[in-house]
Here is the input.
Amino acid sequence: MRKVIFICTLLLLFSFSCVYYNTFYHAEEKYKKAEKSQQKAKREVATGTEVNDYQDAIKKASKVLTFNPKSKWVDDALFLIGKSYFNLGDYPKAERKFQELVTSFPKSNLVEESYYYLGLSRYKQGNKVEATEALISLLDNPKMKKRKSEVCFELGEIKFEEGEYEQAVTFYKRMLEQYPKDELNPRAQLRIGEAYFQLKDFAQAKESFSKVRKYGKQGELLYQSIYWTGESAYNLKDFKEGLSIFSDLSREKKYARYLPNIELKIAEGYKLSDSLDLALKKYEEVALAFPKTEQSAEAYYRAGMINLEGKRDLKKAQELFDKAKTDWPASPFAKSALEKSADISKLSTYQEQVTKEESLKVVAPLFHLGEFYLTQMNLPESALAEYQIVVDKYPESEYAPKSVYAIAWIYENIYQDSAKAKEYYHKIIDQYPNSDYSKKALSYLSLPEESLRVNLAEKEYAVAESLLFQERMVDSAKVILQKIVSDYPQSRYACKAECALAWSLEQYQNPGDSSVALAYQAIIDKYPQTEYADFARKRLGIKVAKVPVPPPQQQPTQPAPSDTTVDSTKTAPAPSGMPKAPAPKVKGTFYYPQSQLETGIKGKVVLKIKISFTGKVTDVAIVNSLNNQEIDDAAKDAAMRTEFDPALINPAQQLDWFLYEVEVTPPQPSQQ
Here is the structure.
């Protein structure tokens, strides 16, 4: 009897075991069906019936975990559930299942695979640091043999996506060296080329792209490698080779579906080679051969740009832009063409105003025409011509200093002609010292602000001198001389102005009291070692070794150059200006450098900043400096710690430059 009971128990246990095996078997069948369909369609995340099959697989495999947690298929069930969640795109649940498997079954033969998918699940959730840790632990474990090549590739992908291209190349190359026959090698080789391209090492990129060929017929990958080899040649300015590569590619029948894009690259090669007529012909061929497509819209747009910038044929350019708008309205080139067409219409309006207006009324349209050429049409040469007309014909207008600054800016930033830039920056200081652009000119020329003050005092004294000695307009001259004394007390012209005031009091008013004597005595007391003090002593009858003549008339002098070095961070804003930053939500504190406390420098450092979508400052550069590197750097640090309310920023201006001022004040002794 006991024997019968024992046999029955064994049969019962065996039947239960079969039941759970069958349950897992059916789960595995559902999983394989869904995975095969997904792989065939090359979908990263399952759709349609695949979703149902994965969900059925999860339900069936979960029964094994629930009703027979000690079954030998538990680790298999966990792995199948984890992969099902992974393929469904439910990465948090997938991560939990893979983590459960490696923790509960450290000796399972599925541990290596689980670590691999654990890393991928974390990566898909954006947890790149934890993903990297999981994958590297697998890569560096000598006991784990599987998935090493795929781990190398995925680590390369993580670094590539993070913008760490050099590290990405390291992982891709490690994969190629250690696993030379792996099926992922062509993709890794292509990615090496793409990484070098992102690093702007176009020679290495070109070489890397060309190596994809050695892996034989790779279909899409081979096409991409040839395409980017040509693109690299263009960036290396080897336009002839680039044209040859794209021309050969256009004759490959197997790449016929890519022909419109290849033809566009051929046209681009002609343009880069300055063969504008050939480029225009090729763009026309593309537009006619592939009408009503995104490529035809691009062809019309690029042909329009050649006519606008290269041929200066505005009428033809607008005609082509209009075609780009209508040929494929959804294309981004259609939107750009619309903007360019509108720009040409505005340009025509400005040109018409310049033609019709007379005398000073034409100055504003002339200046705005120059601004339009520069900022909207990317035609700096035309902009220079308009600005120069304003400077030459209307030097007294409010637009003259703006135009001089715009000319200097173009030579500095577009033509990189420092000699011409300096010429026009000096012109601002010499002719328009009171303008808003004088400090920017000083900044570029690395001259101290005192030189501007000397220049201003010098010019005002010359005016007063002319009024006093030539036109005999004594009262007008006195007003200017008194202004020089009060506004520029540290200038040598303050002393000259006081001397001229005393002399004019003596010569033209002479009230008969002690006023004249007191005025001359004040000069002796205030400037005892100067020629003007000697002149005052002479007028008072005090014997001096050398008698100077009356206040000498102004002789033009040039301000002495400063010993300060150029601050490489200074950047002049575009002539059209920048918007001011809104009031900060959190104002970064300016910390006065300890090493500069004795200088006592104070004022404002004007910066330009970029503000991210979260309100944080992402970039900063000096616009107007206080001519002290440490103080400028401290101001930049304060700006970088400043935060703004994103709601106060127009979305269209986010990531554009804004002007922002940092107040620089030395701390009081109690604060030091």
Residues 2-41 form the longest helix (40 residues).
